[in-house]
Amino acid sequence: MTVKRTTTLLWLLAGGLFLALAGVAAYKVWPVLHPELVAEAPLDPDCDLRAGPCTDTLPGGGRIRFGIEPRDIPVIQPLRFQVQVDGIDAREVEVDLQGVDMNMGYNRPRLSAAGNGRFEGEAVIPVCVRDAMEWEARVLVHTGDGVVAAPFRFITVKPGVSLGKQ
Questions:
Q1: Rounded to 5 degrees, what angle do the CA atoms 114, 35, 71 make?
Q2: Signed CA dihedral, 22, 23, 28, 32: sign only
Q3: pLDDT tens for residues 55-72?
Q4: Are 91 and 142 in contact (CB under 8 A)?
Q5: Residue 156 CB partners (closer than 8 Å, separation 6+)
Q6: What is the CATH number that goes with domain 37-161?
């Protein structure tokens, strides 16, 4: 066997091994990035998280209440998230923050249990190139039966810009 042929075979073997590892990694990470939902509350268009917490009701029962402090929801500053679940056996709660019309990367803080169905945590929302950005905070509640979700939307603005100046 020639050196050139051996080198080619080694490169093919390395490439095949890399593809196999990439496939296994994608298979393992997919459920984390895209959890399968057993129930999802509808989006409430009247919810204004700047005015105070909002509550979503799940089909078949159960409620998820979500609030953000400070209420003006500043970017690049720590925000406090509060989630209250009623009628749901919550084992873990995460808040998946996504730009509605712009990919802003992975931002999914896990909240800590505070007792009696309350969960609390902190996160920072990145600044956007736009003056105003619409976000969806998808509250993911892990239960014994699977994951239930409730979407809540809000708007952030760059420092120095008010919602009325867009």
A1: 45
A2: positive
A3: 999 988 899 999 999 999
A4: yes
A5: 73, 74, 75, 125, 128, 132, 133, 135
A6: 2.60.40.1930
Predicted pLDDT at 151: 97
Give me the residue spans of the domains in the chain: 1-34, 37-161
Res. 97: pLDDT tops 50: yes
Whether the CB-CB separation of 135 and 98 falls below 8 Å is answered with yes
Name the 3-class secondary structure at 68: strand
Contact 141, 64 (CB under 8 A): yes
User: What global pTM score does this model have?
Assistant: 0.76
C-alpha to C-alpha distance for 112 and 81, rounded to whole angstroms: 10
- Name, in order, each residue with C-beta under 8 angstroms of 33's C-beta and a sequence gap of 6 or more: 106
DSSP designation for 127: P
Which residue's structure tokens are 């603005």?
157
